[in-house]
Design goal:
Largest sheet: 5 strands, antiparallel
Distance between the termini: 50 Å
Strand content: 15-25%
Order of helices and strands: HEHEEEEEEEEHHHHEE
DNA sequence: CCGAAAACCTGAACGC
DNA sequence: TGCGTTCAGGTTTTCG
């Protein structure tokens, strides 16, 4: 599924191929893919025609094309969404949902999405963010990302570490794959209480998160299911997974047996030998009545 | 505040 | 061969 590294690879492709170009025609092949555009598919198409794309931007797993005038074409790839650059004559893909043609008559931008959990919409931009992105936390690749305050936020949660990492309002861009990979790198158990971390733990977690995401990015993303970049190329990160999808295999660090459990309804892979399960700290909270 | 569960969707994998 | 069932997962929403 597309998480931060995959979405960033797509963003780079779009930045190279659609910035500066003017939208000529929009073809919505499947209305569900624009369901988040509440004014309907006709309005969606009308708001794009004639607009020039200024830049391709991203926060967490959200991607948007800046249209100027405080508006943007917002995309979320969901679990199977792709943004592809294709020659105008290319055969329609089976799950082609939206097609954008440009005034220069060159390559098209196609949104392809088998499971239709993703979608496109034209959104108002406020303070640099499309409105649906306003509640999403900064991601670890953001120049203003502040690891210390994020870790502080995680530690305040009375929940398990993996669940906290998946909460896009705490830190964005981490999905099921990179949560498992980051926790393995940090040698932390996915069910450890978030409030139980001490300095060495959160330093390891911070490094684990950044390390896992950077590995994903430098490998062009992970292609399990149908992730492809804007040219249709697969990434190779799936071959580099330390634990994700590797139940029963040996832990690359200690040789232990990798386990699969379910956390928040999601498959979770970890090594029970070297990923420490911390215990809840006594009185992690406050301060009864300061009076 | 926490968290489980449902809803949305389709193709692959599996059982018989 | 083929039909039916199960599963996967990001986000939002609902409910306890």
């Amino acid at each position: 599924m597309p998480e931060l590294p995959e979405v960033e690879v797509v963003r780079l492709g779009l930045a190279a191929h659609v910035t500066g170009r003017t939208v000529a025609a929009v073809d919505v092949c499947h209305p569900r893919s624009v369901r988040r555009h509440l004014a309907g598919e006709l309005d969606f198409a009308a708001r794009l025609a004639g607009r020039q794309i200024r830049a391709a931007q991203r926060r967490g797993k959200y991607l948007w094309l800046d249209l100027g005038d405080e508006q943007a074409l917002l995309a979320h790839l969901g679990m199977s969404g792709q943004m592809r650059i294709q020659p105008p004559g290319a055969i329609d893909e089976t799950h082609l949902r939206v097609r954008l043609q440009f005034a220069d008559g060159g390559s098209e931008l196609r949104f392809i999405d088998q499971r239709t959990f993703g979608g496109l919409s034209v959104e108002e931009v406020v303070d640099g963010l499309p409105i649906p992105v306003a509640h999403i936390a900064r991601d670890p690749m953001d120049p203003c990302f502040d690891p210390d305050s994020v870790i502080a936020g995680i530690r305040q949660r009375r929940t398990g570490l993996k669940r906290a990492l998946l909460d896009q309002t705490l830190v964005s861009g981490i999905g099921n794959i990179y949560a498992d990979e980051a926790l393995h790198r940090a040698e932390l158990h996915p069910l450890s209480p978030a409030g139980s971390m001490r300095a060495p733990h959160w330093e390891a977690l911070r490094d684990g998160i950044v390390g896992a995401l950077e590995a994903g990015l430098s490998n062009g993303g992970a292609s399990i299911d149908d992730y492809r970049d804007s040219r249709g190329e697969q990434g190779s990160m799936q071959d580099e997974f330390l634990v994700h999808t590797r139940a029963g295999e040996e832990c690359p660090r200690c040789g232990g047996r990798i386990l699969r459990i379910v956390v928040s309804g999601r498959s979770t892979y970890f090594c029970p030998e070297c990923q420490t399960r911390l215990r809840r700290r006594r009185k992690p909270r406050v301060a009864r009545a300061a009076k």
